[in-house]
Specification:
single chain, 519 residues, mainly alpha, 21 helices, 2 strands, globular
């Protein structure tokens, strides 16, 4: 038997620090909330921001990418946790996204959400999302995914007394439980076929299993991928996203759209490129079909959002996130092109980094506008430039990045990189569908951008919602003048905008670094 000392010595605390810091802080803040008086609850928000910043700094010693821990006593058995370059880049995305989420959440928590519970759940979920890209066996992968997801159910339904929030949490919970059950069944089939939980050993065993287990292995691969498709809102398993985002507190919707999606995609990448690569000829074309269907459903759904509908802005961002998930699937579809395993992973990671920065920025501006226009209509943004020029310019920049138009060059280069993977894999049909969807997306992104600079009054759209005006003049955005911008929310918008500008000025920072990410 292995002694306790040997097990302890095998733990590389430097490697697990990025996940351990938010996990430990989550418990500390939950306990601290019991003793802090109400007037000091805001300190929990800044403690969360500081803890996430510390977790980001803990990644610096890992930049060489050669750390592994929780390894078996047999050197050939492999390790359950590997802090390689892929894990490092995704952890930067996850922790950076969680930090921006904490900043844009601070005003909402102070005004309407229970502080201790919110920060505990956010940090617990972030710890799971940080653990997931470093997981190298199926058990750790599934546990990390559930640690990411389970706190999110409570976050969605944390707004007490809100019927839509409770319905959103229930729909999210039922969908996710179904996905987990399907994934676990698939994982059990893969284990029965290969006799191992380690992803790389599964990849070496599949294709060489006994003939009587071949069908079981294929079924396990299919069920596992279907389970992840539910988690990632890949069409046709996307139906829970618009209602969940619209019913959740807006910072939680932002978190799900970026951090939750990044964690889920990192798990899907690990499963497909490490464990299931021998079946790439089967799941690769399937990924292409799902990518085409997902981007089309998402973009058409966003295009159909009515400007005067309540919570229309968040619903548009929700449908847009589905469309963006379709783009993220394109490089995975190209994995069946005969290149080495993980050849196109860097493109997905680069696109995810771009999407995370600008999408969180768009949600932050939506949170700012929502403080004076709580119905969340797209018409609330009419004339925003006259009321809040900086916020309007920031949102316009974020939307242009998502659309892939100058000056949002990082969005343009990321889309070109994804498009190139489809062409390189000789998936011309997928490249054409992507080009059509990019054109569809231009319509609703530019339509929203135009609203920001439209005349604030004297239009039918403005007259349709006069109650949103603080001065009674029938101008939805006019009430934004009187509202003060909370420091934390302003900081979130400024950080996202600064990151977007830097990446647009030097997109090679992301594209070159992420291009070297191989598994």
């Amino acid at each position: 038997m292995t002694s306790l000392g040997a097990l302890t010595a095998s733990v590389d605390w430097t490697a697990i620090a990025p996940a351990a810091i938010p996990a430990a802080l989550a418990v500390l803040l939950l306990v601290a909330d019991l003793f802090l008086p109400p007037r000091h609850k805001r300190l929990l928000a800044w403690a969360t921001v500081a803890g996430l910043a510390l977790a980001l700094l803990s990644l610096i010693p890992l930049r060489a990418g050669h750390h592994a821990t929780f390894c078996g006593t047999d050197p050939a058995a492999g390790c359950s946790y590997t802090a390689d370059r892929f894990a490092l880049v995704v952890q930067v995305l996850v922790l950076g996204g969680a930090l921006l989420t904490a900043l844009l959440s601070a005003p909402a928590v102070e005004e309407e959400l229970p502080a201790g519970e919110f920060w505990f759940l956010l940090l617990a979920s972030a710890a799971g999302a940080t653990l997931l890209p470093a997981s190298r066996d199926l058990a750790t992968l599934v546990v990390a995914l559930e640690v990411t997801t389970l706190p999110s159910f409570a976050l969605v339904g944390l707004r007490r007394g809100d019927r839509l929030s409770s319905e959103a949490a229930l729909k999210f919970f039922l969908t996710s439980v179904t996905a987990t059950a399907v994934s676990l069944l698939g994982v059990s089939f893969l284990y029965a076929t290969t006799g191992t939980l380690y992803l790389d050993r599964i990849g070496r065993t599949l294709g060489h299993e006994p003939a009587q287990l071949h069908t079981l292995g294929k079924a396990g691969a299919a069920l596992t991928l279907v389970g992840f498709a539910f988690k990632l809102a890949v069409a046709p398993f996307h139906f829970w996203v618009p209602d969940t985002y619209a019913g959740a507190p807006l910072p939680v919707a932002a978190y799900l759209s970026v951090v939750g999606k990044a964690a889920g995609f990192s798990g899907l990448i690990l499963i497909t490129t490490l464990a299931l690569h021998p079946y790439a000829d089967t799941w690769g074309p399937a990924m292409g079909v799902l990518a085409a269907l997902t981007m089309t459903v998402g973009n058409v759904g966003a295009l159909r959002q009515r400007p005067g509908a309540e919570r229309g802005a968040v619903r548009l961002l929700a449908w847009s996130s589905i469309g963006q998930a379709g783009y993220l699937l394109v490089p995975l579809a190209a994995e069946s092109s005969g290149h080495p395993a993980g050849y196109h992973v860097g493109t997905t990671v680069a696109y995810a980094l771009m999407y995370a920065v600008v999408n969180l920025g768009a949600f932050a501006v939506a949170a700012l506008v929502g403080r004076s226009a709580p119905h969340g209509r797209l018409t609330d943004y009419r004339g925003l430039y006259a009321a809040r020029p900086a916020a309007a310019l920031a949102l316009a920049f974020f939307l242009l990045c998502l659309a892939g138009l100058p000056p949002g060059l990082i969005g343009l280069f990321a889309k070109v990189a994804v498009f190139s993977t489809a062409v390189d894999a000789q998936h011309g049909w997928l490249a054409v569908i992507m080009a059509v969807n990019v054109a569809i997306a231009l319509v609703y992104y530019l339509r929203w951008t135009a609203l920001l600079f439209a005349a604030a009054g004297g239009t039918k759209a403005a007259a349709a919602a006069p109650e949103l005006s603080a001065d009674g003049g029938g101008t939805p955005a006019a009430g934004a003048v009187a509202a003060r911008t909370p420091f934390a929310l302003g900081a979130a918008i400024a950080l996202a905008a600064a990151a977007g500008v830097v990446l647009s000025g030097a997109p090679q920072i992301v594209l070159r670094y992420a291009a070297g990410v191989l598994l």
